[in-house]
Amino acid sequence: MVAGEAVAVFLVDVDRYNRIVGRVSFADVDVNAELVRIGAAWVHDKYATDASLYELQEDARNDKRGLLSQPLQIPPWKWRRL
Hints:
Elements: E1 8-14, E2 20-26, E3 29-30, H1 31-37, H2 52-62, H3 76-81
Antiparallel strand pairs: 1-2, 2-3
């Protein structure tokens, strides 16, 4: 979606591994929201600050878009704990 392009990253938090948690914007597109909308990203409850992302995720799940089209859906943070 933004490969090779300059993006703006708006800092939301820094996680326990000192990684930036942020919102990414490119050409007036909220990349975070777009990735959730197309089913290419999960909303992480621990860091989500925008409630609208949950609606986008639920729409993607109901429409069986992207990774949310799979019968077995395990978010990455749960997968890592396994």
